[in-house]
Design goal:
This protein is α/β, with parallel strands linked by helices. Among the domains are: about 10-95, no CATH class; about 240-355; about 590-665, no CATH class. Helix content is about 45%, strand content about 10%. It has 26 helices and 13 strands. It has helices at about 10-15, 15-50, 60-65, 75-95, 125-135, 180-190, 205-215, 250-260, 275-295, 300-310, 315-320, 325-335, 340-350, 360-365, 380-385, 400-420, 435-440, 445-450, 465-485, 495-505, 540-545, 570-590, 595-605, 615-620, 630-635, 645-665; strands at about 150-155, 160-165, 170, 195-200, 225, 390, 430-435, 455-465, 485-490, 510-520, 525-535, 550-555, 560-565. An eleven-stranded mixed beta sheet has the order 2-1-13-12-9-3-8-7-4-6-5, with helices on both faces. A two-stranded antiparallel ribbon has the order 10-11. Helix 8 packs across helix 13. Residues about 1-20, about 65-75, about 100-105, about 595-645 and about 665-670 have low confidence and may be disordered.
Length: about 675
């Protein structure tokens, strides 16, 4: 039976007793040799340095050599030779990659030798990635780009590995597995050009904003923070009107598809049956409304009005005026069907644009007055810049349709530009889509994964599990996304047996030589050996993958086991991120306002000013809270209660002075 040397394993892995005995043999043998060498060196030094007439019999190897008739040799020279040999052996031992079986740090590290290393993962190694980066990227001012998006280090020999600048990336990472510190933040930091970053937390902004803004000495780098949910205290200092960047019906269709997915109405690629008829028709109508609004340079307000009135044919008239007969016919056709069916379609249509009733969203998507001089976000300018677009949102928030649209429109603009620049952007645009399923429901994402990488649009989509991806993109859509990703990384935290079984199969098998000892009835034992194949990493081992370990599957490379490298363990990134975090803390303190804290405390108290009839003593047992007087909000007198004191409100008000003291210290730099 032929044995694959890449997969071959001895019985040392499958026989713990044999493995222990091998370790004992090695330890005793090497230890004795080292002691002998040290003893002979001591004798040598006493003879050579201190001129002590040392008896030759003191050399441990002396009697051995004399047996073979070599008594005439100079013993000190033999000791010197033995000492040199011991140094050579020690150097070889330190330089050769350690056997993972002997130096495992986690319970899966011992399997690294059965997975990809060396030539089997040549495409991931720094040398190959650097050559490709030098060929693909044209950095300004003599700068040098990273070889690719860093993945970590091989467990087998500690080599750095990268996902190159043509590869689209997919990460499956359960909660608390280190995806933000190991992938999201490092990838934002090393992005050579424009960067899109999504998240539902502020940590990526705090850890990277200052360095992304200050990385270019010319001051040309900008940060665009989209934060309607006030996750990172982002103010609407700019706006994005999606209608202004609709040039043809395809652009309008992309935006409508994003808004449908964000509304929880599925996607056309995954839908079927009655729901798909209503939701698909609503998506089509919205697409035509957006296109008609773009033809007339209308605002989103007009689109919203058309969606509320089932009989409003204004969009159809505009499309007819500009000789777009087919879209006009679709608008008239939906308006002209039976009222019951039309109402069902418009119910979905209204849900797709319902985010516009949120007053927090409007300043981000339109000018608020004629005097509003905020800059407008331009995706074409952004794609060719080295700016950063942070998109912060929460699952189900009204801002999600805009985060998805911003991502889709920007990526489409980058693609169109790449086609006019020889087929590829000179500096890649990097999109790090953390919490992709919740924040960036972009239905076209699985499709663009197949060709965006060759255009210099590098996307890293991160999901907590497969179910999350299938819910967002449909089962066929997520399968397409998984298949099209050139680099797939799994870092644990999942219990989906079907996915883990698939992953185990993709990792492959290894050949194991097993030894069996049979105790005969006589005085001797007989030993037999056989070569067997088994899964390299089982479903259980993948489900229990230790912290800071990951499995990488990549095109034209063998599956391999990596050690994650969080930013705080990377000396090149650590200093930058720590500096950015410090700057972020200082900014938070500078923006601290005692008046805001007072107002928030008062508003929270007023929010609990519920109807006294609904909150009677019979159902809450104690009291109802009256509206907080203005004097109390200003901390001029204690909070009055109709009955039992509200300890929470009193404590919050008492802390106001403490907050003010902290602010005073922070301004002097003593708090940081």
């Amino acid at each position: 039976m032929p044995v694959n040397p890449q997969k071959f394993e001895s019985n040392r892995l499958s026989n713990p007793r044999a493995n222990l005995w091998a370790m004992i043999q090695f330890g005793v043998g090497f230890g004795l040799f080292a002691l002998i060498a040290i003893w002979d060196v001591a004798v040598l030094l006493s003879d050579k340095i201190f001129s002590i007439d040392t008896p030759t019999d003191l050399f441990i190897f002396g009697p051995i050599v004399s047996v073979f008739g070599a008594r005439g040799l100079i013993w000190t020279d033999i000791a010197f030779i033995l000492f040199g040999l011991s140094l050579v052996i020690l150097a070889i031992y330190l330089l050769i990659p350690k056997n993972p079986h002997r130096s495992a740090k986690t319970r899966v590290d011992a399997y690294a030798a059965s997975l990809g290393h060396g030539n089997a993962v040549a495409g991931l190694l720094e040398n190959a990635a650097s050559k490709k980066a030098a060929r693909l990227i044209k950095m300004p001012n003599g700068e040098t780009a990273s070889p690719g998006l860093p993945l970590g280090r091989l467990v087998f020999d500690d080599s750095k590995v990268y996902s190159d600048w043509e590869a689209e990336m997919l990460v499956i990472a359960g909660p608390r597995t280190g995806k933000s510190v190991s992938f999201v933040i490092p990838h934002i930091v090393i992005a050579p050009g424009a960067c899109i970053a999504t998240s539902n937390k502020r940590d990526i902004v705090d850890g990277t904003r200052a360095l992304r803004e200050n990385a270019d000495e010319t001051g040309d780098r900008k940060v665009w923070l989209f934060d309607p949910e006030n996750i990172a205290s982002g103010e609407p200092s700019w706006y994005f009107n999606p209608i202004n960047f609709i040039r043809h019906i395809k652009d309008a269709s992309d935006i409508a598809a994003c808004w449908r997915a964000a509304a929880g109405l599925g996607s056309s690629s995954a839908g079927s049956g009655n729901d798909e008829f209503f939701n698909g028709s609503a998506e089509q109508q919205l697409s035509n409304f957006l296109f008609a609004a773009a033809l007339k340079s209308f605002t989103m307000r007009e689109v919203f009005k058309w969606c509320q009135n089932e009989n409003d044919a204004s969009a159809g008239e505009i499309l007819t005026e500009f000789d777009f007969q087919e879209p006009a016919s679709q608008v008239y056709g939906i308006i002209g069907i039976t009222p019951e069916t039309r109402s069902g379609i418009y119910a979905g249509l209204k849900k797709m644009v319902s985010f516009m009733v949120d007053e927090k969203i409007l300043p981000w998507i339109q000018k608020m007055s004629e005097d509003d001089n905020r800059p407008e976000y331009n995706p074409f300018d952004f794609a060719l810049s080295r700016d950063t677009l942070y998109l912060l949102s929460q699952k189900g928030a009204n801002s999600t349709p805009i985060t998805a649209a911003l991502t889709a429109v920007t990526a489409r603009a980058a693609y169109d530009l790449s086609q006019n620049m020889g087929g590829r952007l000179p500096i890649p645009l990097v999109a790090v889509l953390d919490e992709c399923a919740n924040i960036c429901p972009w239905p076209e994402l699985p499709e663009v994964y197949s060709y965006y990488g060759s255009c210099g649009i590098i996307i890293n989509a991160l999901f907590q599990n497969v179910s999350q991806g299938e819910l967002a993109f449909g089962k066929p859509g997520f399968k397409s996304l998984f298949d099209n990703a050139n680099t797939k990384v799994y870092i644990g935290g999942n219990a989906d047996s079907d996915f883990l079984q698939q992953l185990s199969s993709l990792i492959g098998q290894r050949d194991v030589m097993r030894y069996n000892v049979n105790n005969n009835s006589g005085w001797t034992d007989s030993e037999s050996q056989s070569i067997q194949s088994e899964q390299t990493l089982s479903v259980q081992q993948l489900a229990e993958l230790p912290a800071w370990r990951g499995v990488v599957l990549s095109s034209q490379n063998r599956a391999t086991l990596i050690k994650l490298t969080p930013w705080f363990e990377d000396p090149l990134i650590k200093t930058q991120v720590e500096s950015a975090l410090k700057a972020s803390k200082q900014q938070v303190v500078q923006n601290f306002s005692l008046e805001d804290i007072k107002k928030t405390a008062g508003d929270r108290a007023m929010d609990r000013n519920l109807d006294e009839n609904a909150l009677s003593d019979s159902n809450i047992g104690t009291r109802t809270l009256k509206r907080v007087p203005e004097k109390i909000q200003n901390n001029e007198e204690p909070l009055e209660k109709p009955s039992a004191p509200n300890a929470g409100d009193l404590e919050r008000m008492r802390k106001l002075k403490e907050f003010a003291d902290k602010k005073a210290l922070a301004t002097k730099g003593e708090l940081i």
